[in-house]
Design a protein that fits this description.
234 residues, 5-stranded mixed sheet, binds FE2/S2 (inorganic) cluster, 12 strands, single chain, mainly beta, 4-stranded mixed sheet
Amino acid sequence: MADGQKDKRRTAKDGMRIVVTEDGPYEVSGSVPMSDQQMVPDADGLSVEWRQGKEYPVEEDYSLCRCGRSTNMPYCDQSHLDADWDGRETASRVPFAARTEPKTVGPQLELSDVVELCASARFCDRAGGVWDLTRASDDPTSRALAIEEVGNCSAGRLVISDKEGNVIEPVFEPSIGLVEDLSAGVKGPLWVRGGIPVEAADGMVYEIRNRVTLCRCGKSDTKPFCNGSHLEPD
Ligand code: FES
């Protein structure tokens, strides 16, 4: 199927779906669970683990703010109607595998990387970084840490495979995490887990993935996906 072509054949797991509306919120349907997800840092400010915070009542349908202006976060309160913001979707529609840079190849692991997807969650920098850990993947400790760091990469920028090419992914309950970046003191993107389809305002369904992050500050220039702009001062 050509990039950008409408793809309505893929159906949501259990009816779950997130629809990007034109200059408006994300319309979530299918009773998607939602919770706060906190990035827990080490002494150097590098992220080491996710900690679940508040769980929200599960509603069948709800609207989540995409512009960053709501006074009832995380929900849309129609503030986008008066906001000076540009909600246009500018993200690439090319599948991940066709965008990855030359892989980092180690003795036991291969790492794929699409930098443009980075949401600056900073799980990949510990212990010399996931790239060096991949190159050192003959060592069981390095191998385990590389897999852990990639699994914590909320945006799905990083994907890791074994040497037979089998992708190694964490198993997530399909859900939305409201990211809280504790060391930076800011709210981060929506962490969409478990293969929930994200549909563009023009009806195209983005590549369905286990981990993606959606902008909710309104500042990303790769909307609807996060590009770390929530860390920039207003
Ligand atoms: S998208 Fe409606 S208030 Fe932000």
